[in-house]
Amino acid sequence: ADDGYRLWLKYNLIKDVPKREAYARSAQFIALTGTSPILKSAAEELQTGLQGLLGKTVPIIANAGNRTGGIVLTNASGADVQTLTKEGYKLASRKGSNITVSGKTDSGVLYGVFALLRQLQTGQAIDNLSLAGNPKIQYRLLNHWDNTNGTIERGYAGESLWKWYELPATVDPRYRDYARANASLGINGTVVNNVNASARFLTAEYIEKVATLANVFRPYGIRIYLSVYFPAPKVIGGLKTADPLDPEVKKWWADKTNEIYKLIPDFGGFLVKANSEGEPGPQDYRRNHADGANMLAEALAPYDGIVMWRAFVYKADPKSDRFKAAHEEFTPLDGQFDKKVIVQVKNGPIDFQPREPFSPLFGNMPKTPLSMEFQVTQEYTGFATHWVYEAPIFKECLETDTYVKGKGSTVAKVIDGSLHQYTMTAIAGVANTGTDRNWTGNSMAQANWYAYGRLAWDHTLSSENIADEWVKMTLTSEPKAVKTITDLMMRSREIYVDYNTPLGLSRPWSGVHFAPEPWQEKSVRPDWTAIYYHRADSIGLGFDRTATGSNALAQYRPEVQKQWNNPETCPLPYLLWFHHVPWTKKLSTGRTLWDELCTRFYTGADSVGWMQKQWAQVESAVDPVIFADVTGRLATQHKEAIWWRDSWVLYLQTYSKQPIPAPFKKPDRT
Ligand code: GCU
Fold first, then answer.
1. Angle between helices 17-25 and 37-54 in degrees, nearest 10
2. Does residue 212 contact residue 178 with C-beta atoms inside 8 Å?
3. Catalytic: 277?
4. Higher-scoring residue by pLDDT: 93, 95
5. Which residue numbers delimit the Glycosyl hydrolase family 67 C-terminal domain (predicted)?
6. Is 196's C-beta closer than 6 angstroms to any atom of ligand 1?
7. Edge-to-edge strand ranges of the sheet holding 30-32
8. 370-375/426-430 β-pairing
9. Before 168, cis peptide (omega within 30)?
10. Do strands 139-143 and 426-430 pair parallel, antiparallel, or not at all (unpaired)?
11. d(CA 145, ligand 1 centre) in Å
């Protein structure tokens, strides 16, 4: 039975014998010139992969000499690799010769090996190969929101992977498998601790533990980063202030940075959540975000490390619109950040909702490199219970046109630096991993880790192709089942949106961000109620962000405003994001707002029943353990989809005073 531990690196024996034999003829040896730890990882991974896929041990030799029929791994420099960027790879093969996997760096070779293995895992031809891959984004990171006590903020797959209490003496072999999985996607950095950071991570005790993890990740081309607690100089340094302009504070950070680099020479840098949701920051000392970020950049100046400063800010003010906050605070600082600073922006203006418009910061900070923060962990998309394939969420944002430099100025082009010629590019995914045997709780959520990594490398890949690859590598190669499962994946997000937050609703949550609580009209903060977001009243529903309301739309270019600012033509998925719409208003579907809402809630919940039926059809094609696990989760999802539907409908009905439309109404009980 398959417990899901091996993720998409299963390397099960290829059942198609002629195909397997053809592969084997081209993979009689692995020739490796070079001895670096990364090259060694590459050769070992290839050997492990071939052992599984072909069922034989392929020897690693030092030099191919005149031999043909093997795989040659080279860190090359000549004309061959001229078109490659630093971490790019090239696969080439000709009949009667060898397969070459080349890169300009050892990491490039490692990524090439995984690309070659992917060819075999998905049943592609490997003769006449001519395939090159260059990452479009330079820093491709996972962000772990993990705490010292092993808990994970918004983690749904067990505890933290990092066993701080065992480190540095005991090194869980799982750390290496984690690194392999990330390297297979091209992820080259990981922030190991929560953005709501504990200062303890900067103590000598913890730096030593973190350094031990860094030693495991290094041979896989992965650098370690830390989230920092801004007042650390006070909390663990004994200083009276954490004012970023104070000379003693600057010195403290410089010394601390030196201490880190002594143990971790390739340390990646700092991630900072400051003056956000109550976390302290430079504003506590009447300084701004740039002052804070630049102070850390200065500490990192002697090293190859960066500062990732988050733009997730908003005020507890019932009259302001949270949507506008990051743009208001950050755009005036454009041009003031040190060259080592990148500002990390969540994909949407609020907080990882199942559907959000893109953050209006994208495109509006031409002089400051901006990075993308996506949430892989399913905080708002059903935890590890609901099956939501996230690639369409990521793609939707990346492909949206900001119009800041005319048509075609997509968010992706902001992030990959091509629009404003950013000197630095980065992307981050909030991780969904934990100590569950299958890493992600719901084994279908492995696809979200996979898809995030693949898109971080190349945002032009399609959601369908990524799903197809993942299914073949992870679940089955039986064509009908592959199709059924990818189809399910592709529809899963819209189904979730339909029963959870249709037509542009958002944030109907209680504190745990799971249970429906659209009726939550009071909270510790006025902007943490549900009604702050959906604005239901006797007239209608939705947040007016046009000129008659908060005018958040004015933060976008006129072309974008034009798409969204007219309630008659605003696409329905965004309608209630931007408009307060009367219950009785006829929409483009021919139904009134109320009837359309009910239709979405009901068909959404019913569609989970459809998902269950589709999944039942693949039983013979997938592993029984995974099949049973997903079957159980879908049953829960169905129950909870009905819970969502009923909560929303019954609550909104208290305002709309409309009956549930006939097709969905239960007959009266007699
Ligand atoms: C969300 C999440 C928090 C998290 C925050 C952040 O609001 O619920 O747990 O700390 O995002 O991204 O900083």
1. 150
2. no
3. yes
4. 93
5. 440-662
6. yes
7. 60-61, 30-32, 71-75, 99-103, 89-93, 130-133
8. parallel
9. yes
10. parallel
11. 9
Phi, psi (deg, nearest 5) at residue 126: -125, 0
State yes or no: is 379 an active-site residue.
Answer: yes
249-263 residue pLDDT tens: 999 999 999 999 999
Give me the helix-helix angle, 446-457 and 463-474, nearest 10°.
130
Q: What is the arithmetic mean of pLDDT over 97-114?
A: 97
Length of the chain: 670
Decide: 41 and 33 in contact? Cβ < 8 Å: no
Is the distance from the beta carbon of residue 416 to the nearest atom of ligand 1 less than 6 Å? no
CA distance 566 to 571: 9
The C-alpha atoms of residue 427 and residue 140 are separated, in whole angstroms, by 5
Rg (the chain; Cα; Å)? 26
Please give the structure tokens belonging to residue 392.
Answer: 């369409």
Instruction: Name the one residue in this structure whose structure tokens are 């971080």.
Output: 456
| Cβ of residue 528 lying under 6 Å from some atom of ligand 1 | no
- What pLDDT does 670 receive? 64
Among candidate residues 379, 416, 517, 595, the one labeled active-site is: 379
Contact by Cβ (8 Å): 477, 623? no
Burial readout 339-359 (b: 16 or more C-beta within 10 A, e: otherwise): ebbbbbbbbbbbbbbbbbbbb
Q: Could you report the predicted ipTM of this complex, rounded to two decimals?
A: 0.99
Measure the CA–CA gap between 129 and 112, rounded to whole angstroms: 12
The domains found in the chain, sorted by start residue, are 17-132 (3.30.379.10), 139-461 (3.20.20.80), 497-543+580-664 (3.90.1330.10)
